[in-house]
Specification:
The chain is α+β, with helices and mostly antiparallel strands. It is 43% helix and 23% strand. It is built from 16 helices and 17 strands. It has a five-stranded antiparallel sheet, sandwiched between helices. A five-stranded antiparallel sheet has the order 7-6-10-9-8, with helices on both faces. It has a five-stranded mixed sheet with strand order 12-14-15-17-16. Strand 1 and strand 2 form a beta hairpin. It is rod-shaped. The relative contact order is 0.06. It binds flavin-adenine dinucleotide. The site of flavin-adenine dinucleotide has 22 residues, from strand 1, helix 6, strand 3, strand 4 and strand 5.
Length: 540
């Protein structure tokens, strides 16, 4: 069938009507495609119009109200593989494929029968049989009496775009599955700190940590590396196997071995097509492997060492006290002998004076021997010290008495704390005195509910620590007295020498810090300690 010049009159009529009054909802691109044809009734000559429609890059067809094809353009021929002569007079269903569900056609026809524009996707098949995905717009064209005169169809092939989208979504699914099943925390964080990607392990942390996990990882890593992570990332350096500690839920710390990889940023703006990518626009791919279990094992061994160290210290302290007491006690008879010698010098009893001198010599010899065996107090080296870790050690050392007293420990430590330079054993001993006091106070209280709260935070170059209990508290008149040596205000003082707070204060002061008592916390006692980050101790 050859499309005659006369038939083009019908086609021009269809388009003219369409442009005079495009149905509501006609997409702009459809109108624009015919724009050259002219608007407002000032149309191009028919020949020129036909050339324009002919040359349009989109497949165009014009049908009668029953979808019988009146005209198709060259793009239609190229896309469908049908020559014009093969389809003019046939129904548009010549392109129909069994893969399009019947409901889609029903929806198409219901819409256009109501004189509305339909836009959707169909599976079409080409002349040779192979299928493609058509994005189709069908616009009704009305006659002056309001009846549908024609339908205008425009479609293009979106198979490639669909295939690409499918591949992309498949790859994303694969990546998501691989990431979600990975036994480590994975997160991608942009330069401005926005979380771009997270896996299941990361999401799980969100539910139990008080802050966004990415922020906690960044804080801990920046402290560890001593550098801004965005700079590390922009310099393309990355990092591997950085072990960090984050205070987890319920007071149990978690340890992670972290690696970071720089991911170059991208700019999808058309204006950036000819520009080289900005090196600073990058993101950080964070991979954090939890190593808490192995840390826990190391920690167990460390705790055993601390326990035996503390036991040894205790023994040395006891020996020092016993020997000092013996030296002190021996001093009295020696002084008496000395007085007796000076008295016997005035009498005639020379033999008595000789015996006394002998007794004095052997007494002084015995004192000297005792002084020589007095064990030396240990000198401890400075080290990088994490206060959260020390407090944890103390809680572990005090587990039995805490359980025995039925104390609920409310752990409110800062998730990430900077380290300070100090003597860990000395500071641990100081905290132990304070925690032991809190337990003793709770044991002496009538409260059914016994609580000890521990808080830490970094503030203005200092670490602030608060140890609180809801025991009987300390009377305001006593808040300075309790630091005096040998002061003991316990109801059951047995086994207490009244030296704990004195020693704790001395150890804190040695670190350039301070200790204060708030005597009215929850009706109990709150001890504030501050320790400077920068300043080391001044004295032994
Ligand atoms: P059909 O029996 O033709 O139709 C299936 C269902 O569509 C019917 O059950 C009925 O609910 C509805 N229907 C069909 N004809 C009418 C009608 N005249 N009035 C009311 N409801 C009706 N189809 C494609 O597959 N690919 C295309 O590219 C395509 N382009 C089109 C362009 C235009 C301008 C128009 C008007 C239609 C186009 N169609 C196209 C739709 C096509 O006409 C067929 O409806 C469709 O191909 C289904 O054909 P079929 O033989 O499988 O089923």
């Amino acid at each position: 069938m050859t499309q005659s010049q006369a038939d083009y009159g019908e086609v021009i009529d269809a388009i003219s009507r369409f442009l005079t009054s495009p149905p509501e909802g006609t997409p702009n691109e459809v109108i624009e495609a015919f724009d050259l044809f002219g608007g407002g009734g000032d149309f191009l000559p028919p020949k020129l119009f036909l050339e324009t429609v002919e040359q349009a890059p989109v497949a165009i067809s014009i049908t009668d109200p029953k979808a019988r094809i009146l005209y198709v353009n060259s793009a239609f021929e190229r896309l469908t593989g049908y020559a014009r002569d093969q389809v003019v007079g046939a129904n548009q269903s010549v392109l129909s494929s069994k893969s399009t569900p019947k409901e889609v056609y029903q929806e198409l026809w219901t819409t256009i029968a109501e004189r509305r524009v339909w836009r959707g996707t169909l599976v079409n098949h080409r002349h040779g049989g192979n299928e493609y995905l058509a994005e189709l717009t069908v616009s009704p064209v009305l006659a002056p009496n309001g009846e549908i005169a024609y339908f205008l169809g425009m479609h293009h092939d979106i198979s490639e775009m669909h295939a690409m989208q499918q591949r992309l979504s498949f790859q994303k699914k694969l990546t998501d599955i691989a990431l979600d099943d990975a036994p480590m925390v994975v997160a991608m964080i942009s330069g401005d700190g926005t979380l771009l990607l997270e896996n299941r392990r990361y999401t799980a942390l969100k539910k139990v940590w008080p802050e966004e996990p990415a922020q906690l990882f960044i804080q801990a890593l920046e402290r560890q590396l001593g550098q801004n992570l965005h700079d590390v990332c922009a310099l393309d350096e990355g990092f591997t196997n950085q072990e960090i500690r984050i205070e987890g839920e319920a007071g149990s710390p978690r340890w992670y071995s972290c690696s970071g990889v720089r991911i170059a940023g991208f700019d999808d703006a058309a204006s950036s097509y000819f520009q080289s990518p900005d090196a600073r626009r990058c993101s950080l791919l964070l991979i954090a492997n939890e190593v808490t279990a192995s840390r826990e094992r190391i920690n167990q061994a460390r705790m055993n060492m601390i326990r035996s160290n503390m036991a040894e210290q205790q023994m040395v302290q006891t020996m020092r006290e016993a020997l000092s007491a013996s030296i002190f006690k021996m001093q009295a008879p020696i002084n008496i002998i000395r007085a007796a010698i000076s008295m016997s010098a005035t009498s005639d009893n020379a033999s008595m004076a000789g015996v006394l001198r002998q007794a004095l010599e052997s007494g002084e010899e015995a004192m000297e021997t005792l002084r020589n065996v007095l064990p030396e107090a240990r000198i401890e080296q400075h080290a990088n010290t994490n206060i959260n870790e020390l407090l944890h050690d103390v809680l572990r050392l005090s587990t039995d008495p805490l359980l025995a007293a039925g104390v609920v420990v409310d752990w409110r430590a800062a998730p990430v704390l900077p380290t300070l330079t100090g003597r860990p054993n000395a500071l641990r001993a100081a905290f132990k005195y304070l925690v032991d006091n809190a337990i003793q106070a709770l044991n002496e209280s009538d409260n059914d509910y016994r609580e000890m709260r521990l808080e830490t935070r970094a503030e203005g170059g200092e670490i602030e620590i608060a140890i609180m209990d809801n025991g009987p508290g300390i009377a305001e008149a006593d808040i300075f007295k309790v630091f005096e040596p040998f002061y003991c205000g316990w109801q059951q003082p047995r086994g207490h020498a009244g030296m704990g707070l004195t020693l704790a204060q001395e150890l804190i002061n040695d670190h350039g810090g301070g200790i204060e008592i708030d005597c009215d916390f929850m009706g109990g006692c709150r001890i504030f300690i501050c320790l400077p980050l920068e300043r080391g101790e001044e004295t032994g």
